[in-house]
């Protein structure tokens, strides 16, 4: 068996991670702006709460999709590797 080291691509090159990172930045920016507005005006508006609720809702949806896709991808790779190993062992036995 040949031992090859697989080069794992950087997380920053993954489109899924970039989408998650952008949504994380949007969510944090929204929260920071909300805190600044509350400190300056000492008032919380319904519109501000609605926007924050929607941004956080979408952020958590994107996070769940990101985690789900990563888990699914790992399961798929594990099954693929197991099938390849089984095929190799069957070919060696012949």
Question: What order do the helices and strands come in, and which of them pair?
Answer:
Layout: H1 15-41, H2 46-93
What attributes does this structure have?
94 residues; mainly alpha; rod-shaped
Give an overview of the whole structure.
This protein has 94 residues and is mostly helical. The chain has one domain (14-89). It is 80% helix and 0% strand. It contains two helices and no strands. It has helices at residues 15-41, 46-93. α1 (15-41) runs antiparallel to α2 (46-93). The protein is rod-shaped. 0% of the residues are buried.
Number of helices: 2
Overall structural class, as computed from helix and strand content, comes to mainly alpha
Task: Give the amount of beta strand, in percent.
Answer: under 5%
Number of domains: 1
Could you provide a short overview of the structure?
By secondary structure, the chain is mostly helical. 80% of the residues lie in helices and 0% in strands.
């Amino acid at each position: 068996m040949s031992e090859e080291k697989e080069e794992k691509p950087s997380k920053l090159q993954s489109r899924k991670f970039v989408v998650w990172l952008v949504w994380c930045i949007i969510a944090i920016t929204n929260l920071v702006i909300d805190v600044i507005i509350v400190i300056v005006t000492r008032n919380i508006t319904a519109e501000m709460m609605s926007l924050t609720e929607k941004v956080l809702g979408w952020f958590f949806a994107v996070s769940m999709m990101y985690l789900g896709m990563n888990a699914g991808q790992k399961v798929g790779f594990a099954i693929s590797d197991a099938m390849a190993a089984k095929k190799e062992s069957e070919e060696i036995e012949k």
